[in-house]
Design goal:
The protein is α/β, with parallel strands linked by helices and 215 residues long. The protein has a single domain, classed as P-loop containing nucleotide triphosphate hydrolases (Rossmann fold, 3-Layer(aba) Sandwich). It has a seven-stranded parallel β-sheet, with helices on both faces. Helix 7 links the parallel strand 6 and strand 7. The longest helix is centred in the first third of the chain and has 14 residues. The radius of gyration is 16 Å and the shape is globular. The N and C termini lie close together (10 Å).
Amino acid sequence: MIVLIGGEKGGTGKTTLATNLAARRSAAGRSVLLIDADPQGSASNWTQLREEAGITPRVACVQKFGHALEAEIQRVARLYEDIIIDVGGRGDALELSTSLAVADRAVIPLQASQFDLWTLARMDKLVSAARRVNPSLRALVVIGRASPHPLVSEAAEALSVLADYPQLQKTTTVIHDRIAYRRSSHEGKSVNEIVPADKKAIKELQDLYEEVFAE
């Protein structure tokens, strides 16, 4: 399966989701390639930390941009069971349109802010255009970095806006702003691997994993 993690806006936690899903999928016994298509290189840095620390399972990673990304996807499609692509937050980027054209799933993380919600119309159009050549594409919007406070309802309010965008499907999972995600990123790990464990973060990740990789 090819899974794109990306969207119009940066700062949504997309690399955190890409690395955690790659580690979780690898732990399930799948051969996984993480493609870092973001010039910031955060996913590549994460895999380097993981390699240096000797953390298993190993997560293979390459960094590709522009037309080289399309060629790389074609080259590795038969070598790995799953490919996870971490794309930078620039909606007109070649990397985003290239990935949408070949992905089975597009996971679009958003924060529950008006600035992020303004990007939905553009993403709806991009997904619609991609489906002309890739009709099986499913686009999932997940609210990320949401407040963990039980009285804050911003995530639910943000998800209600998705009814206006027929190409986009909301996830039932919400990813909250938890220290565990930042710790795992700094250590080259997933939230499943850090000690002490954060059971809420682990459950969130597992719930999202099941939604993304559902057949």
